[in-house]
Structures are given as C-alpha cells and as structure tokens.
Design a protein that fits this description.
single chain; alpha/beta; 7-stranded mixed sheet; 6-stranded mixed sheet; 15 helices; globular; binds adenosine-5'-diphosphate
Length: about 475
C-alpha cells in the first residue's frame, strides 16, 4: 500500500470517539477498481449500531454547540492541517479505492481540505440581524442556531471532498454529524475520521459508519434525533430518502444527478472551448455529477470541433491511477462499464457515429476507452441519462433558441457550460439555462467559496460558500419588549 503512515488505513468505524467493529462480526470488502483486488474489509454495521452513532452525536451536541465559534473554528483548522500534512497518503487511499489518477486525487485532497478551511472561517460569520421594529416598545432580533444532529450520506466519486463539504459545514454551525460513505469508498472517510480524532475534535462530534446502504440510510433518514440529512448521490436514492425523512420533517440538502450541457457557439474561442471540454468531461473519467454530458455545438463549427475533440480524446492515457501520466482511470465497477456499453450500443443502433473509442479498453476489467460519438439525437437515451463515464456526445444546433431548448431538455438542472465571446449572448444564455451553476468560457466551476447545487431533479440546497453554512443553521426570531407598548 505504501502509505507514509499506515495507521491512516482504518478498518473499523468511528462512533462516539471509539473505533468499533460490527457486533455481528460482519464486514464487507473494499475493492481496487483498477485491479479487482481486495484492499481492506470494513464493518457491516446493523441498524442498532447506526442508532448508537446517532445517540453519540446527540450526546456530543450540547457541549459542542455551546462552544464559541472561535473554538469550533480552531478545531476545524487543526483538522485542516492534519489533512494537508497527510495529503499524499489521503490521495493514495482515494486512488486505491476510487481509481482516479493520483494527480487528480491530490487535487481532490486540496479541494476537500479547502472546505474545512473555508468553514473554519465561516463559523465566525453566522451572523444574526436586527430588524427595524413596527412597535416602539419592542426590538426584533434574529439568532442563528445549529440545526442539531446531522446525517451525511456521501458518494464514491469524490470520497474526500463530499464528506468535508458536509461535515465541516455542520461542525462550523455547531451541529454534530454521522457520516455514511459509499460502500465503494469507505476508507477515505475513515482516514478523515482518524485525522479528526488527531485534531482533537471531541468524541461524538463526527462519527463515520459503514455498512449496508439501505439499512443505515433508513436509520439516518428516519431517526427523530437526526434533524438534517445531507445527501449526494443518485436522484433515485434522493427521492427515497426524502420520502423516508418526511414523517420526521428533517431539513434536507439533496445534491443529485446531473446532465450538464456544454454549448459551443460559432463565435467561441475554439481552442479554449476544447480545453474546457476536456476538463469538464474527463475529470474523474467523467464520473462527476457536474461532468459535461451533452456537447451542443453550433453547426458552423460542428465538424471542426468534433475533429479536434476526437484528437484530444484519442490521445488520453488510460490506466491504473498510480501509473505515471495516466489521465483516465478505471470506471468504479463492472456495472458502470455495462451501462455505458449499453448506452453506446443503443445510440449507434439509432444512428450516432463513433468518432473515436467506443468500447471496453484493451486493459480489460473496468477500463473503458475515452469515446466520442457524434450526431447524437435528443431522442436517444444517452442524451437523456447521466453517462457517468469517459464518453462525450455531440449534437449540432442552429441558433440560440434551439441551443437553449436543447440544453434545457433534461429533467436535471445541476451545471451547464457554454463558450461564446459575445457578452450579450453570455448573459442571455446564462439567464435562460435551467440549472444551479453555469460556467461561461470555463470548464470547471467547483470551489469551496461558491454555492454548489442544482434545481429540478438535481435536487436542492447549496454546499460551500456562505450558503453552505446556512443549510446547517436555524433562524430564531426574538421579539424583545424594552418598555411601554
Ligand atoms: P451511485 O449510483 O452513484 O452509486 P447512489 O445514490 O446509489 O449513487 O449512492 C450514493 C450514496 O447513497 C452512497 O453512500 C450509497 O451507499 C447510498 N445509498 C444507496 N442506496 C441507498 C438507500 N437505499 N438508502 C440510503 N442510502 C443509499
């Protein structure tokens, strides 16, 4: 494994400041998607053990929420330092269990650590207000108070950043947290728990549990002591969790699927658009909810864009994430490979053309060739569904109206990208796109300082930025009598 500090690789859960196994003795394997080899085994906790984690978070809450914002910020800064001091080891764990190229894993550690740093700062800025009163004898004030115990259910594609962006915000606000990472990538989450412990974050403030998603998810979504649930994952599971959370009226943040359009207008700087396209499509091998899913290209530049994009795609180096120069790692599992294969087969049968790639990679296993399909029609399933892999699809458009209509012809509304050099068009199109985030002349928008989130079937709520803290705060209104009415 080659970790500088092998003790970062934990194979037990972190509950109430203790490292625990399942009482049943059950566990499940974590597999390296590049080789199929087992890396470690982690506990398969049961429902009552999830409840214990919730109880631990509930017990830690009164003291944690009474700490000053400055004290909470200090704990977060220490956690941040621990993460950066162990940057390479964390990135190794990310690459091992997720498969992404090591350089990208390092990038994720920095991005993920950025949330801890950001929310250490935001902890200090949970301001209330005074509101001009309609009554001479009363004053109106608002306070911000922590929501309470929070649950965080995170996906495998950014195992580090998705956890810090929820838990750091929760802790900054004065909440305590129970996190359940994806079964594919629990080791990164457990390493983060280890570093939280080393940072001195008190027992019970952060808990990490692993086990069957449905069992633990149901507990987190239904337990009355959990006051908020933040979920990143599929729209299907998001809907399920929302329904499960309804009887206890939990606060929710749902960051669900995406189907980002990437528009290239004829007046675009094509070189910039190509670089942006590669970044927006192939980061994490396309396994990102903000990945460009549909390239919509104005017909005047369609063939040129297709030819140049194909060249860049064909030049991508595919391989295990630890190999030097690798730009695209394996897909997460065989199911993902089969899904993409089926989407391509169906599209080709309906008239799409393979420009480059098109199938499994010679390396075998979960490796897939970076692929470009052109002449994809909006009626094809590959246009409507989130591809979640290294496959770019091209569709031509004629004018702005058609571009906007095509871009919005999706049930999702997370990110969108477009390239133009016309300022008026930039504003008009940005306003018309139905999504939560727009990149204009850029292929990447994520940063801890900006609000991340979607609309439509991509969910609701914002993470990162000052809004990310609000998700973990309640507003309490105080009406204060100060004299005669
Ligand atoms: P993906 O298809 O990208 O794996 P999922 O929505 O299935 O997306 O997974 C995202 C997270 O949701 C993971 O932590 C996973 O374990 C969890 N999850 C999956 N199914 C359920 C469920 N029925 N209840 C709660 N959490 C679930």
């Amino acid at each position: 494994m080659n970790l500088n500090d092998p003790s970062l690789l934990r194979s037990r859960c972190y509950v109430g400041g203790h490292w625990v196994s399942a009482a049943s003795g059950k566990f499940f394997p974590v597999v390296n998607p590049a080789s199929g080899e087992e890396i470690a085994r982690v506990p398969a906790l049961a429902a009552d053990e999830a409840r214990q984690a919730i109880e631990a978070a509930a017990s830690a809450l009164p003291v944690w929420q009474k700490r000053t914002a400055e004290e909470r910020a200090e704990f977060l800064k220490r956690w941040h330092r621990q993460i950066l001091e162990n940057r390479e080891d964390l990135a190794r764990i990310v690459t091992l269990e997720n498969g992404k190229p090591f350089a990208e894993a390092l990038g994720e550690v920095d991005y993920g650590a950025g949330f801890v740093d950001w929310f250490a700062g935001e902890a200090l800025r949970a301001y209330g207000e005074t509101i001009p009163s309609p009554w001479p004898g009363r004053r109106i004030l608002t306070f911000k108070q922590p929501v309470g115990v929070c649950a965080a259910i995170t996906p495998w594609n950014f195992p580090l950043a998705m956890l810090t962006r929820k838990c750091a915000a929760a802790l900054a606000a004065g909440c305590t947290a129970v996190a359940k990472p994806a079964a594919e990538t629990p080791l990164t989450a457990l390493a983060l728990a280890e570093l939280a412990e080393r940072a001195g974050i008190p027992a019970g403030v952060v808990n990490v549990i692993t086990g069957p998603a449905e069992v633990l998810g149901t507990e987190l979504a239904t337990h009355p002591k959990v006051r908020k649930l933040s979920f990143t994952g599929s729209t299907r599971v998001g809907r399920l969790l929302m329904a499960q959370a309804a009887p206890t009226l939990k606060r929710l943040s749902l960051e669900l699927g995406g189907n980002a359009p990437f528009l290239v207008f004829a007046d675009a700087d094509l070189k910039a658009a190509l670089s942006g396209a590669m970044l927006a499509k192939f980061r994490n091998g396309g396994q990102s909810c903000v990945a460009a899913n549909r390239f919509l290209v104005q017909k005047e530049v369609y063939e040129e864009f297709a030819a140049e994009l194909a060249q860049r795609i064909a030049a991508l180096k595919v391989g295990p994430g630890f190999e030097a120069g690798v730009q695209v790692g394996p897909l997460i599992h065989a199911k993902a490979v089969a899904k993409i294969e089926a989407l391509i087969a169906e599209a080709v049968a309906q008239g799409a053309q393979v420009v480059t790639g098109g199938g499994r990679h010679l390396l075998g296993g979960n490796f897939f060739q970076p692929t470009l399909l052109k002449d994809v029609s909006p009626r094809m399933r590959i246009f409507a569904e989130e591809i979640f892999g290294p496959v770019a699809i091209l569709t031509a458009f004629t004018d702005d109206e058609e571009a906007i209509a095509l871009a919005n012809a999706s049930e999702y509304g997370l990110a969108a990208y477009f390239y133009t050099q016309d300022l008026k068009r930039a504003l008009r199109v940005a306003e018309a796109l139905e999504c939560g985030m727009v990149g204009v002349n850029v292929g990447r928008v994520s940063t801890p300082v900006a609000p991340f989130g979607g609309i439509k079937q991509s969910g609701f709520g914002r993470e990162g930025s000052k809004y990310g803290l609000e998700e973990y705060l309640e507003i309490k209104y105080l009406c204060l009598g100060v004299g005669e009415e």
